[in-house]
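In this section we walk through a basic example: taking a raw amino acid sequence and producing a predicted 3D structure, encoded as discrete structure tokens. The instruction is simple. Fold the sequence below.
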Amino acid sequence: MAYSKAEQETVLVFDNEIREWKVYTAVPKHIRKLMEFGKEIKVMDKDEKGTQIAIQCILSEKNVTLRKERVLTEEQRQRIAERMRKTS
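The resulting token sequence is shown next.
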């Protein structure tokens, strides 16, 4: 059985000595992404259909980027939308 929304989490731990991220996740969206490019993937749990519902993996330091959330004004949104319309 899949985890409830309240039980789903993703945990990232950075090991500064070896410059890698250790990741655990039970969030389906994150599982799908990590299955594409994670290393040393370990399936921690499966549901009754055999679908992975929790995994652990390793990511390189370059795979994770921390950045400030971009907040746009309405004017900036309109300019971006106009540029997109011109390129389509």
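Looking at the output, two observations stand out. The radius of gyration is 18 Å. The longest strand covers residues 52-60. In the next section we compare this with other chains.
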